[in-house]
Amino acid sequence: MFIKRRHILNYLNIQRFKCLKEYKMNTYTREEIESHNKRDDLRIIIDHKVYDVSEFANIHPGGKHLLYSVGGQDATEYFYELHRESILHEVGDDFIIGNLVSSKL
After folding, report:
1. What is the per-residue pLDDT across 85-94, written as a single tens digit (0 to 9) for each?
2. Contact (CB, 8 A) for 68 and 42
3. Would you say 40 and 13 are in contact if contact means Cβ atoms under 8 Å apart?
4. DSSP state of 94
5. Neighbour order of strands in the sheet with 49-52
6. Beta bridge mates, 74
7. 3-class DSSP state for residue 81?
8. CA 23 to CA 17: how far, in whole Å?
9. Which domains, from first to last, does the chain contain?
10. Residues 51 and 92 sit within 8 Å (Cβ to Cβ)
11. φ, ψ (nearest 5 deg) of residue 98
């Protein structure tokens, strides 16, 4: 019983951390992301999340040129053509910098 309770508490702490992480993230519009398409300033959008992949591009297993080709754009469709969703969570979570919004007021 103690072990089960500990697992539940760990799960709740993880969920709370995820909520805090979501809350503290910046928001970006598509227009703001479009200008981040250079080798030293490379951002992409996947599933309405904004990723800064400037550093990751050099170690991307498929080559940096693939990321350069979608820099500053929504790469959701392209990403899922080549990857499983689990890869996004295993690797991508470290590079999330914010959420995509339709516009800022």
Report:
1. 999 999 999 9
2. yes
3. no
4. G
5. 26-28, 96-100, 49-52, 41-46, 37-38
6. 45
7. helix
8. 10
9. 26-100 (3.10.120.10)
10. yes
11. 175, -175
Joined tokens for residue 70:
């979608």
pLDDT digits (tens, 9 = 90+) for 7-50: 555 555 555 445 445 546 899 999 999 999 999 999 999 999 99
Percent of the chain surpassing pLDDT 70? 75
Q: Rounding to the nearest 10 degrees, give the CA dihedral for residues 83, 85, 89, 93.
A: 70
Cβ–Cβ under 8 Å, residues 52 and 99: no
Cα-to-chain-centroid distance, residue 74: 11
What tokens were used for 98?
Answer: 């914010």
- Residue at 30: amino acid letter: R
Q: List C-alpha distances in Å: 104 to 9, 26, 63, 85, 100.
A: 37, 11, 34, 29, 10
